[in-house]
Design goal:
With 162 residues, the chain is mainly α. The chain is built from 7 helices and no strands. Helix 1 packs antiparallel against helix 2.
């Protein structure tokens, strides 16, 4: 049983990333555009208002990047920091524990994004497509290029560079 679960781990992580990013992006879209019920029960956050507008931009862009699996670790790091800021600045002053101060969602998002920083995107990520293409187009070791001995392609490149 654990072998089957381990084999499915990248797919479960990919689905976790997609759902978490989508939900996070929805919060940003609600705050910026007033969709899905708007910010805090209706309306939008005024453009440039600190910290709400900046948090909404991070939520929308960071959530979309995490959902797509493009720059996942960097986007998750930024999103986690914004949720930690939200928790400690907006919620912590009301009470110590998240259940008491209304900060459960901020805490869960912060820790969810920390998890993605350390695990990476899992399956279904755009960055996996880009890295696979880059690896496919890179010269093989032992052939022409910096990793292997000089071949006819290297002389051509040297002539072009000169």
């Amino acid at each position: 049983m654990p072998t089957r679960l381990n084999a499915a781990q990248p797919y479960a992580l990919g689905l976790f990333r997609i759902v978490t990013g989508l939900l996070f992006a929805c919060h940003g879209a609600a705050s910026l555009f007033g969709v899905l019920g708007g910010a805090h029960g209706g309306g939008t956050v005024p453009a440039g208002a600190w910290p709400g507008w900046y948090a909404a931009v991070i939520q929308l862009v960071g959530g979309a990047l995490v959902m797509l699996g493009a720059g996942t670790r960097s986007a998750a790091f930024l999103a986690s920091g914004s949720m930690a800021y939200a928790y400690f600045v907006m919620h912590q002053e009301k009470a110590l524990f998240p259940l008491q101060n209304g900060g459960e969602l901020s805490a869960l998002y912060a820790w969810s994004f920390v998890l993605l920083v350390f695990t990476g995107p899992g399956a279904f990520a755009l960055e996996r497509v880009f890295t696979a293409r880059a690896a496919h187009t890179r010269p093989q070791a032992g052939g022409a290029g910096e990793d292997g001995p000089a071949g006819p392609g290297d002389r051509t490149r040297e002539a072009v560079a000169a």
